[in-house]
Amino acid sequence: MPELPEVETTRRGLSPHLEGRSIHGVILRRPDLRWPIPPEISTLLPGQAIQGVRRRAKYLLLDTAIGSALLHLGMSGSLRVLPGDTPVRAHDHVDISLDNGRLLRFNDPRRFGSLLWQPAGETHALLAGLGPEPLDDAFDGDYLFARSRGRSASVKTFLMDQGIVVGVGNIYAAESLFMAGINPLREAGKISRARYQRLADAVKRILAYAITRGGTTLRDFINPDGAPGYFEQELLVYGREGEPCRQCGRLLRHATIGQRASVWCGHCQR
Question: How far, in Å, CA of 14 to CA of 71, rounded?
């Protein structure tokens, strides 16, 4: 599933083409994706100007004066800005046409993505209760230390909890814990404030760098321009079970933590 850097890469790719443009019409080639597409998408969006393209966690929001189209890419979804006469391919489920003759097309082979509606001044239920953005100042070692007290869950499970911090999925949690030198199996409530500061710093550095590299290409994700991300080539632990640690040379360990495959170095991560 695309993680925060992939979604942010998509947002940055779309923004210059969408912001300030008016929506001419909406074509829905099916009534649902992961969930039914609400009628407001077809009835309220046409005629509205796109004031901004935002990201919250792994969701994209197309903001208008009356509300926002809320999009999630799911496991295989992609968004492209295309000429209006581009032929329709398989799995091209939604077209949002623009006033300049181009269109925003949502393709999703597996249909785990979503297109929903958030009225102006309201917060959609899927966005309620989310933690801070990991690149915001509110996310730091003091915050992680305070939220972790009394928690017996593994630190990796804790870090991937969207109520604690948004957008840190399996790939970037594994890489951040390696950079911080923290064993992913350690209990979250038993990690010191200083180590949490190292972890918060690692999360920020890795996510920011992955964004500059276009995210991580795994399975289906490609950028809005069709080019792959490049961070996958630089992964230090994720997906490298049984291979040598690039820091100490010892074989990496692996296990299932919180129903997710996890890889770490037993020597470098304590």
Answer: 13
Strand order in the sheet with 102-107: 23-28, 92-98, 102-107, 78-83
Residue 221: predicted pLDDT: 41
User: What's the gap between Cα 225 and its chain centre?
Assistant: 18
Q: Which residues of the chain have pLDDT under 70?
A: 1, 215-233
Find the largest Cα–Cα distance for the chain.
60
Specify whether the CB–CB gap between 263 and 254 falls below 8 A.
yes
Q: Which residues are catalytic?
A: 2-3, 58, 260
Q: What pTM value is reported for the model? A: 0.88
CA separation for the pair 77, 108 (Å, rounded): 4
pLDDT tens digits along 212-238? 877 554 333 445 555 545 455 578 999
Block residue for tokens 């490298």 = 240
Tokens encoding 224: 């809005």
Give buried/exposed letters for 196-226 (b at 16+ CB in 10 A, else e): bbbbbebbbebbeebbebbbbbbebbbbbee
Q: Are strands 52-56 and 59-64 parallel, antiparallel or unpaired?
A: antiparallel
Residue 101's Cα: distance from chain center in Å?
29
Cα–Cα distance for residue pair 66/44, rounded to 1 Å? 8
pLDDT, one tens digit per residue, over 11-45 is 998 999 999 999 999 999 999 999 999 999 999 99
Helix, strand, coil: what percent of the chain each, to 5? Answer: 25, 25, 50
- Residue 255 three-state SS: strand
Residue 200's identity, in one-letter code, is: A
* DSSP state at residue 15: H
